[in-house]
Amino acid sequence: MYDDIRYETDDGIATITIDRPDVLDAFREQTIAELNDAIRVANEDERVYVVVLTGAGDGFCAGADITEMPDWHEEMSKEDYAGYLWGVQNVVRQLRAMEKPSIAAVGGPAIGAGCDFALACDMRVVGPDAILREGFVRVGLVPGDGGAWLLPRLIGESKAKEYLLTGKDIEPDDAVDLGLAVENADESLEAALDLAADVLSLPAHAVRRTNELVDSEQTFEDYCERAIEYQWECVNDAEHHEAIAAFGEGRDPAFDREY
C-alpha cells in the first residue's frame, strides 16, 4: 500500500513504521500523505484496538528531509506552505483525536516534527539511543507542528520552555524522569508492543472512553458529565459483563473479537 511507511496489523495491534532508515526516517511530502492515510485506516479499522508508531533502523523520525523539500522561501507561496504544514500538523491532529490508544516506540532520534509525532501519542517508550528534540529554534523556526502546545501539557510550562527555547535534547532517562516516557527499554518497539498487549487485554470500550476522559482542557464539571455518559455506555457493554464474570470466576476474560 505504501512506499515510505509500513503498515502491519497483528492480533488487534496496528504498527505504523516510518521506513526511510537511510535518513533516520526523516519525512518528505509523500511520507506525510502516507502517515495521514495509515492513521486514518487504523482508526477506522474495527479490528484494530491499539496503534504503535515507530521508525525503521536506528531512527524514529528525524523531522523533515531537507534534501527532498523545495526551497520554501523561493518556490512556495504562503498558501502553498500553509497547505504543506497543515498536512504535517494533521498527523498530530489525527493521533490526538483518535479514541484508540497510541504508543510511540522511540528507538532513535525524534527531532522537530518527529518529536511532535511522538508527543502526540498517548504514551511513549524510549530506547537507550532515543533523542527527543524540539530543535526548531536552532534553525530559526517555531514549533509549527504542535510541540509548543503539547510539551507544556506533558511536563509543565517552565521545563517545556527550557527545551523549546534552547533546542536541547531530552535524553532517555530524563524522558522517564519527566514523565514523558513510561519506560527506557533496550528494545523500545518490543516494550511498546508488550504495553500495547497489556492495553489490548482490557475491555476496549472502557479503554477508549478512559483515553478520551484524559483531557486537560475540560473543566471538572465537564469531566463529570462525560463520565456519566461513558460509564453508562460501559455498564451496557458486553466486554464489561465478561470482565465482571471472569473476575468473579477467577479466570482471564475471553472477549468476543475479530482481529
UniProtKB/TrEMBL annotation:
Protein name per its UniProtKB record: Enoyl-CoA hydratase/carnithine racemase
Species for this entry: Natronorubrum daqingense
PANTHER family: EG:BACN32G11.4 PROTEIN, ENOYL-COA HYDRATASE
Domain of life assignment: Archaea
A Pfam family recorded for this sequence: ECH_1
